[in-house]
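Re: that chain you flagged

S.,

Sorry for the slow reply, it's been a week of failed gels. I finally had a moment to sit down with the sequence you sent. For the record, here it is as I used it:
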Amino acid sequence: MCRIAGIISQSDNQENASCLSLMLDCMTHGGPDGGGIYTDGPLSFGNRRLSIIDLSKAGNQPMLSADSDLAITYNGEIYNFRILRDKLEAMGFAFASKSDTEVILYAYQAWGSKSFELFEGMFAFALYDKKRKECFLVRDHIGVKPLYYHLAGDKLIFSSEVRAFKSVNSHWPEAEDWKILFLAFGSIPHPFTTLSDVYQLPPGSYLKLELGDFSHSIVSYYSVGPRDYLKSDHTEDLRMMQFAIQAAVSKNLMSDVPLGVFLSGGIDSSLLLTVADRLKSGINSVSVNFDESSYDEYHYQKVALEGTTNVDHTSHRITEQMFWDSLEDIWNAMDQPSIDGVNSYFIAKCAKKDGLKVVLSGLGADEIFGGYPSFDRIQWVRRLRKIPFKRALGRVVGWKKHAYRRLMFLNLQGVTGDYLFLRGIHTPDYIASILSIPEERVWKVLGTVKLPV
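Prediction finished late last night. Pasting the structure tokens below so you have them in one place:
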């Protein structure tokens, strides 16, 4: 969706607005429908807009409240904004647009930071309270929307993309150990990035900055409650899950622009398409297929489409030559390295070619429902943790099958070790050899990663 950025100094800095313009320029690809900058002394907010809800100028950002006491730059979608809007209108608030952005402003005006708990959706925004001289950076409950920040001395810089920080300083140093993290995880885990002293804001939290003395705190506004594992009723579980999926898909279908579904052929995307087709007529779907038969899922896509009634489907075939021709563009498109970057690039490019701005995907379903083959190994984690000399044993058994080397990850305590045992890419000894560094340094870096439970 949109892209946001901002620079806040403790003292007035004339360069902030010009630096912010450079940050926004490098993110135009994510917000091609317009842009704007709001400045108030030492504070500058910027936005690159991708219009989804309320395509009129009334939805432009940064957006101010009617009394100009609040300013916001926002990326995302609040699914329950109409419900919140009705409540706010009943309280006497008047709206000048039909956007969810304006709802965030007045929800904060009505309920303060408690309003952040009320938003259902995926979002990242910065909100400036001019009267209180406070600024909030807020990220959605599970961290769907990215929000990166750098806070040092008397300056806070934030952005939707890591690359934007390089626009402020082309010589911004790289994080010393990002390559270790990438080679182990296949991506950069929270809260790290590829740049030094640039971090991801934790999901379900907000950073509160006092502009007077530049004191700050990170506050969690959302947490998962106690998990009671009760005996379940299979029939009731299925009924509740069906209701939850239908409700989620229905909320995600809100859009004032063409909307589609990524159809890979897996159970997750096939289910999304089936539900979306029942809820809304004229749904678009898009698939990519490959010349290699082992990666091609055309037959599964065909089965899914046969179960729909009114879907406009487009299939695109990706060839090896297309990959090589697009390689440089793929690197440029990835803000941070990811082993899923190539797939994401092609499916997004095909969706854009089909005229789609909003596309639903099954991303995350395998994690929630244990759909990856690696989850079959969970039953072995507790038993294998009791085995001594796991690092050495992993090397020994790894000669038979490379995946067995991941046993050594269980030498790491907690969830991080469990995750890397199940899903890790390269083991510490391999990473050390690739980067020509001591293996103990790899172990030390991986030990600093604290994955959420």
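What I noticed first: The chain has 16 helices and 16 strands.

Talk soon,
D.
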